[in-house]
Amino acid sequence: MPTYAYRCADCGHAFDIHQSFSDDALTECPECGGALRKQYGSVGVTFKGSGFYRTDSRGSSGSSSSSSSSSTSSSSSGSKASA
């Protein structure tokens, strides 16, 4: 079950709660009865390996992109085996 962070717009009370995806969002502060807002934080994502650049997804229309795509697939399969 995911954990959601809420903060009251009236009193500033902040708390985390475990809720199912199918549960409705909370709307009332348990401390003062004010309006709650979901807090959204940043997610740390790190892209490693090839395949995350605009040029990596293009089709092979020339000899240079054909050679880069073959090297890309071999390097990505090597990184998957080592991970």
UniProtKB/TrEMBL annotation:
Annotated Gene3D superfamilies: RNA polymerase ii, chain L
Native organism taxonomy: Bacteria, Bacillati, Actinomycetota, Actinomycetes, Micrococcales
Signal sequence range: none
Bias kind Low complexity: ranges: 58-83
Every Putative regulatory protein FmdB zinc ribbon domain range: 1-41
Protein name as annotated: FmdB family transcriptional regulator
Highest taxon, organism lineage: Bacteria
PANTHER family membership: CONSERVED SERINE RICH PROTEIN (PTHR34404:SF2), REGULATORY PROTEIN, FMDB FAMILY (PTHR34404)
Pfam families documented for this protein: Zn_ribbon_8
Residues covered by region (Disordered): 52-83
